[in-house]
Structure formats: C-alpha cells, structure tokens
Amino acid sequence: MNHQRLIRILEEVQRGVMTPQSAAQRLETLPFEDLDFAKIDHHRSLRRGYPEVVYGAGKTAEQMIDIAESLLRQNAPVLITRLAPEKWEKMQSHLPALTYSEIARCASAPASGDPLPYPGHSIVCAAGTSDLPVSEEAAITLETMGHTVNRITDIGVAGLHRLLSYLEPLRAADVIVAVAGMEGALPSVIAGLVDCPVIGVPTSVGYGTAFGGVTPLLSMLNSCATGVTVVNIDNGFGAGYAAGLMLRRIARSTRG
User: Where are the extended beta strands (E) located within 70-141?
Assistant: First the structure.
C-alpha cells in the first residue's frame, strides 16, 4: 500500500497534477513499514533529521531483532536504548552489525556508508562514576547520529579543581551535556563558565532526599546560571538527541 501511494504521488508530479512542493509535503509522512506489532517510521529522518530510535524496555528480543533488521535494510543508523543484557544475548547473533554497551544498555550501529562526522564539538560529562550509565547513553546517541564526542568523567563539584582543569576544552565546545545526581549542581556551574548551550541530565543517583532524581531535577530547573536546558531524570538519550539537533544546525550553517 505504501509503495503504491508513493508511485501515485510521483505519477501525479510527472503529469503536472501535483507540484513538487506538494509532493514533498505528502512524502514527509511516508513511508512506514508495518510489522504488525510496530510501524517503523522510515521517513522520520526526513522530518526530524534523525531516524527512529528503539526503546528496548518492554519489547521482546524477537521484536527488537525485526525492528533493527527493518532499519538496517534502509541503511539507517540503529540505536536501541534500555536494552537488558539478557535480551542482547538472544539478539547478538542475529545482528552482527550492532555493538552493545553494557554500561549504557544500548546497542548501536552507524548508518551504512556514513559520511564523515558532522562538524561541531560536543562534550558529555559525568559528575561521578555512578552517573556513567546515563552519560554514556547520551554519548552513544550522539555518536550513532554521526557526531564526535569528547567524554569527561568524574568532575563533580565535590572537587571543583577537577572541573576547572578541563576549562579549556569546555569553553571550546559547541554544546555540553552535563550529567549529575545528588544535588545536581554540575550543569549550573559549567553554564557559568562557558558560552554554549548546556543540557542538564539529572540522574537517580543519590541518598534518601535525592528522591530518585527529583532533587537534582529541581536544582537544574532552578539553575542560577542561564543557558541550561534540562531533560527528564536518567534521560541520557533525550539529552544526546537534543545536542545532536543543535550540532546539525551548526553543520547546516557551516555547509551553507
């Protein structure tokens, strides 16, 4: 059905019944591949700049294999987040193109024949080692979408001198993802030192009154330094995706 609709649109353009502009608007919603349990949106990259990403929690290994294979047939990059190790064990022989990160619980593969990475300099930093699962999810998201990432680990405000030792690369960045639990102060401190967007990611790391990430979330939302954008608790993927969109705009302006 989707193929027939595509042919009909192209024929109407050929006959002059439809303008190329109207056809482009129609094509923005086509096509998707119906797998019964999922409808794979192969034109998401046309609308959003990046293809569909698979949220692994709640899906069976068999479902994720079928979805990943659908994306690979389109030469699209593949990213599966929140993928439990026991499910990956069932999947890896079917998806040799994918690489699994146990710490981030992500499986990923770049697009087939991907061009060189986009211009733009991104940094993903983690306040503490316990924040690494979330920060690595953000970094892998950026890399899967074609961006280079500089990772900085364990620069939380409990030892501010550690952060200050990275001041030069932080000030050279075009976008920074700052991941922190506990009181969540890192994004605000970084934002007071740099002139680029800072994306704060609160994590559920912390003792009792961290309230599973609510305390760092509220701290980041109340950042004294300006220019801090905040995503949901433990949402490294969302932060990486947002940073990728910013870098893509930089690439567009650079290429004219």
Answer: 78-81, 99-101, 106-109, 122-126
